[in-house]
Structure formats: structure tokens, C-alpha cells
Amino acid sequence: MDDEPLNIVLFSGTEDRLQAAAVMASGAAALGRKVNIFLQYWALDAFRKDRISASLGLAPEAGERGATLVREAAAAGQQPWHATLRVAKELGEIDIQACSLSMDVLKIEEQDLDALVDGVEGVTAFYLNAGDGHILFI
Amino acid sequence: MSPEQIAQVVDAKGLSCPMPIVKTAQAIKGLASGQLLEVLATDPGSVKDFTAWAKTTGNPIVEQSVEGSVYRFVLRKK
Description:
The complex is a heterodimer. Chain A contains 6 helices and 5 strands; from the N terminus they run βαβαααβαβαβ. Chain A is of the alpha/beta class. The mean pLDDT of chain A is 95. By secondary structure, chain B is α+β, with helices and mostly antiparallel strands. Chains A and B meet through helix 1 and helix 4 of A and helix 1 and helix 2 of B.
């Protein structure tokens, strides 16, 4: 199992869910496990150069109380989700691919994406690279 | 026998999961086999996380203690 990659289908574009995905990826990278991340829809939108550092909001269940707690964590020094991912990418083997269908739907060109994104692929290539590893949908 | 020298210290106090482990994994890359790395962390998941990390990566914990809210681990690079 340790040789199989961790595969994350990242769909959500809110900061809490992006941070959760970045944490899962970092942990796997720290254990020496390869990570594949497939960006769909709102997660892909969040990786646009002009959006990545923007305020992307939280999942609806956060509510006002959750938003306050997340703000406090950030003020206490918790790094943003994209910084977590950048550190993890330096540490281990994390391949981040944009879903080609989502690129079409959202009218995003490859040059619009942050350098964290390694390329564009379809779902078949994602499954091929996923091998027998776990697939998380976030 | 004199105590073994710690080659490097990672101060991960105040950092939340997974940063203590990420910083440890980064630091151990720079060490030679057999060298010791000391890590200080306050993340409450540290004990379980470092135990799991050591087991999975094969870099054993040779010393472990807790003082107040600070966990201390000494790891040996495999």
C-alpha cells in the first residue's frame, strides 16, 4: 500500500476544504508517498493566478462561528492553503493536474493557472496514474 | 559514554498539523545516516503522528519526553 499513490479529486473551492486537501497531501508527502491531485470545477478556479491569494470563503457549514475560528487560526499564524501545498510540493512528489473538462467549462487557459499546477489531463489519465491507491474526493 | 550529539533541532512549537511532521521530513533529508534530529512541538497530535511517521519512514524515535505542553522527540536518520 505504501507504494501506491494517494489520489485526491479536488472539487471544492472554499478555503477550508482546500486547506483540508493540502493537509492530506502534505501528510502523505511527509511519509514519502506520491500524491496526485486532480482539480475540478471550483478547486480549479481557485488555482487561477488571479484567484489563488483571494479570499475564497468557507463551506456553508462553517457559519459565523466557524468563520471566526478560521480567522483566528490565520491570525495566529496558520498559513493559507496554497502555502501548505507549496511546502508539501518541495518536500515530496505531488503532481497537480487540471481536469480538461473543467478547463473548458470555466473557460480557463493553462497560462491562467498558478505554477503549482503541473499540467492538464483527462479523467482517464488520472485513473491510470492513480493505480490501486486510495482516491479521496474533497 | 558521553551523550550523542544532536545534529539539528527543529522548533515546531506553535505550528499546527501537519507542519511539525513536514518540517521534520524536510530536515531529516539533510542529515546523514545515523545522525540525530531533535524536534520540539506543541501540536496535541504529535505523539501519535511522530510514532506513525517514524514507523512508516523507518527513522526511529530514540528519545521522547513531554514538558508542560511541549513534546520533544529525538529521531535517528535511518
